[in-house]
Design a protein that fits this description.
heterodimer, A: mainly alpha, B: alpha/beta, Rossmann fold, four-stranded antiparallel beta sheet, 8 helices, 10 strands, about 35% helix, globular
Chain lengths: ~280, ~230
């Protein structure tokens, strides 16, 4: 067990090292664009307010009536924050494909070395999965730190009287993206992570099917992906299908979704293990 | 002993291996010979569980290959299998992290023998030097069996001589070695066993020295008879 954990940690650290440049770039871009947003958006508001008050000779109160008071939500809904968050999600999604395919790419087929390591092959799977999750949580952590600092920056730039009084948590709670990807609401956050984990397990299985059976595997993988989506989404449509016979509470639907996602996740793990041990091809 | 028993392999509709069986003993250098596309690399991949076979089995000292047995058998493929941005030292450290059988002292010896600089990055090395690193990473493992796929491919004559010297040195002594190569001339004198493949089957299996002594034929002569006519 100790040996197992040691090699798993080694592999995870190794994969982490390989993702580090990409991850640092994502984190850097996120921080930089966020910072621009924290400064540029409130300054533009303050500039507009001042200009309006000067040109129209009105009071601050009248200007607020014209432009509205400023809230942190006005910053979080700009592209300066939405773009890096979206970039992070899509970047890691692409990296989830790259993390496997790079082993087979080019002249240096590192897949040989990985598959010939004297460790259970599922450790390769787990280390890649862990690294994707470490990257996701690093981005979340940096985003939280960034938002906390950003809130202070915005409060320092905009005069108190012009602020709406909305707190950071309130601003994030009404945000369509951050309320899901950040741990603002535990329900949404856990749901997003549960769906995300199941998605990753299915995606890795699809990749391994393709790596094992080539074009036929790609077809099988796509079919597997579609079937898992249908199974996972089934509880959502279930109340409509049985509305004349049975009424489902939301909690029952949620429990069914959790059970089905667990089944999909475990099935994906078992298929992946079989493929890695018996079917994978260099 | 590596025992390959009745393995069959198909790529699409093309049958590549059609019931191949042979054994590799410890302390014996064997060579798989055949024209391009005859399935030599596929056999090595199948032994290492890097490609599934349709039928048949491969055992290493009576056991089916499981990851722990990669401490017993090493494969040196015809491509660099370390990361290009790694230095040779980093590649050796990587091996040391995972293989119980990594012999750092022997690695140092081979590094010196090949006159390689441990701090050179693999991507900056010539093809010949990359092949040497590949050999180093395989030979520095204290394994009982070594498989090598085309160790002379695209390599200059001086490097070939060095690699041949490795074969005749203590580095492969007492190990079971299986090589595939087109450059049979370079190692013919070192071979114990030659396995000739044709049309997905073992066409002939013979002792190179015995063939020379009894029939006066070299391996190339036998190959010429089989493949040309």
């Amino acid at each position: 067990m100790k040996q197992y954990m040691k090699s798993l940690l080694n592999l995870t650290a190794f994969e982490l090292d390989r993702i580090s440049k990409f991850l640092y770039t994502l984190l850097g871009v996120t921080l930089l664009l966020n910072l621009i947003g924290y400064i540029y958006t409130p300054m533009r508001y303050v500039g507009r307010m001042n200009e309006y008050m000067q040109t129209e000779s009105v009071t601050a109160q009248q200007a607020i009536e014209r432009f509205g008071s400023f809230s942190f939500y006005d910053v979080t809904s700009t592209l300066w924050l939405l773009a890096p968050a979206t970039l992070g999600i899509s970047g890691l999604l692409l990296y989830s494909l790259f993390i496997w395919y790079r082993e087979w790419m080019g002249k240096n087929t590192f897949a040989y070395r990985l598959l010939m390591l004297p460790v259970p092959r599922m450790q390769i799977f787990y280390s890649k999965l862990f690294v994707i999750y470490i990257a996701i949580f690093s981005l979340i952590a940096v985003q939280i730190i960034s938002l906390t600092i950003g809130f202070q920056i915005v409060s320092a730039i905009v005069p108190d009287d012009w602020l709406s009084g909305m707190t950071l948590v309130q601003a994030l709670n009404i945000h369509p993206l951050f309320t899901v990807i950040l741990p603002v609401s535990s329900f949404y956050f856990l749901s997003a992570n549960g769906i995300g984990l199941t998605f990753m397990l299915v995606l890795f299985t699809v990749i391994l099917l393709e790596r094992s059976y080539s074009f036929k595997g790609l077809g099988l993988g796509i079919a597997y992906g579609v079937v898992t989506v249908l199974i996972a989404a089934f509880p959502v449509f279930l109340p409509d299908l049985v509305q004349n016979y049975y009424f489902f509470y939301d909690s029952e639907i949620m429990a069914l979704i959790i059970v089905l996602m667990t089944v999909i996740g475990v099935t994906s793990l078992l298929i992946s293990r079989h493929l890695l041990n018996k079917k994978i091809t260099i | 002993m590596i025992e390959v028993k009745d393995i069959h392999k198909q790529f699409g509709r093309k049958k590549v291996l059609n019931g191949v069986s042979f054994t590799i003993e410890k302390g014996e250098i064997s060579c798989l010979v055949g024209v391009n596309g005859v399935g030599k690399t596929t056999i090595l991949n199948a032994i290492m569980n890097l490609t599934p076979v349709k039928k048949g089995s491969v055992t290493i000292d009576g056991e089916t290959l499981v990851p722990a047995l990669y401490n017993k058998i090493a494969f040196i493929p015809d491509a660099s299998i370390s990361l290009p941005h790694f230095t040779i030292q980093e590649s050796m450290d990587f091996m040391n992290d995972y293989y119980d059988t990594w012999n750092a002292r022997r690695a140092k010896d081979i590094l010196k023998f090949f006159r390689l600089n441990a701090y050179d990055k693999l991507r900056d090395l010539s093809k010949g030097n990359q092949a040497k690193v590949n050999l180093l990473l395989g030979l520095a493992l204290d394994v009982e069996y070594i498989l090598m796929d085309e160790p002379f491919s695209g390599i200059d004559i001086f490097t070939r001589e060095q690699i041949t010297e490795v074969f005749s040195s203590y580095l492969v002594e007492d190990r079971g070695v299986l090589i595939t190569t087109h450059e049979i001339n370079d190692i013919e004198h070192l071979l114990d066993k030659v396995i000739l493949l044709d049309e997905g089957k073992i066409y002939k299996e013979f002792n190179a020295e015995h063939m020379r002594e009894t029939e006066g034929k070299s391996v190339i002569d036998v190959m010429r008879e089989v493949y040309t006519g």
